[in-house]
Amino acid sequence: MTTAPTLTAPSATAPTLSDLHALDAAAMPSIFTLPEDVALLRDEVREFARTRLRPRVLDNDLAAADDFDWDIVRAGHELGLLRLTIPKELGGRGVGVLGVAVAMEELAAVCASTALIFGASMLGATAVLFSGDPQLQARFIPPFLGDEPVLACNAVTEEVAGCDLLIPAHAADAAEVMTARRDGDHFVLNGIKRFITNGKVAQWATVFANLEGYPGATGMTVFVVPLDNPGVVRGAVADKMGYRACLGTTLEFHDVRVPEENIVFGEANGWGYLNVQSNQARTIVAAISTGVARGAFDIAKDWAGERVQGGKPLSEQQFTARKLAEMAAKVEASRLLYLQAAYQAENMLPAPVFGAAVAKLFADRAAIEVAEEAMSIVGARGYCREYGLEKLVRESFGARIYEGTPEVLALAITDSLYGRRQ
């Protein structure tokens, strides 16, 4: 009788799918070779995920919905993950969209929740960094450079305005319920934001609100709001199916006064920024989905190489080999699409909406398909929590919801094809 192998983390000796890229890098076309600094960052984050993150994944996933692992955030902060996108002249690492996306894939291959914690914080800080406003940067960026970790969040989604903010090609057709009313040299914010990642633990938020009297989202304005301001209420944490280690919560704003100097990009200029931000966010989510798919693939690959049935490993049996090949192809294609989208965004190339939407649409679907196939290959052990695969299956579904559902992405893609948006 053949003893069934134990299902563990991917082998440290056998090459993973990502390792294959480094086996013959010198012979590969330059378009597929990461810049040296990005490759070094990838290796740093991969080692962090393997040694520091993986041992905590199961406990964090099984913890209560409102538990938060500040220790792993602190460890990531020591690595520099919270200052990746901060320019070097401000004390950060000066990493662009490409490097961030690659780092998020590495984290997500082990724990998508952790990738989302760091990714959402970077997204929240992006507006201040993009603004080029010295006073905003002097007030809100230094905490990211201190000894203790500080998180930000990005408050866009509302009870009745999630996809309604992303579907329309024009601001007048978009739904924005949260309001901002001028009162002297301040604005008074009222409204409720939903499912805000890091909302429970962030120090401040980038908040999108519509100026009173403007139709649709034509008055959308971006505010930086410290979450200890009077009138801000952090609501209950959502008890989610996946991404359980990152906290998504409601943020309520009841007559919250914000000084006008906390406006980013000026009054009624938030719609354009939201679309730029959305392209970057979709690219990052595509990278996270790629990481989830890769994590599931590596588990299935190791299992199929060790599990013997009918006298030979599953990996040598035609039916399983075909599955593994198709899974590998989906991971590879997902990676190439998000790398292309990241390159477009970082270099301000044409058609960023199209590239980011295509990357996310494909990678999100690939993550679900690869995770499900991995479960079918591994079988009963994969269905048990202690092996980690069922977590990846749960998390594979999450990315299809945030930063654009498949339907929203399809509209963005076809709008681009017909010239309705770029």
TrEMBL record:
GO terms of molecular function: acyl-CoA dehydrogenase activity; flavin adenine dinucleotide binding
Pfam family, one: Acyl-CoA_dh_M
Cofactor: FAD
First-level EC class: oxidoreductase
Leader sequence segment: none
Record keywords, A-Z: FAD, Flavoprotein, Oxidoreductase
EC number, UniProt record: 1.3.8.10
Ranges where the Acyl-CoA dehydrogenase/oxidase C-terminal domain occurs: 269-416
GO biological process: butyrate catabolic process; fatty acid beta-oxidation using acyl-CoA dehydrogenase
Domain Acyl-CoA oxidase/dehydrogenase middle residue range list: 153-256
Domain annotation Acyl-CoA dehydrogenase/oxidase N-terminal: ranges: 36-145
Domain of life assignment: Bacteria
Family of the protein in this entry: Belongs to the acyl-CoA dehydrogenase family.
Name of this protein: Cyclohex-1-ene-1-carbonyl-CoA dehydrogenase
Organism in which the protein naturally occurs: Nocardia macrotermitis
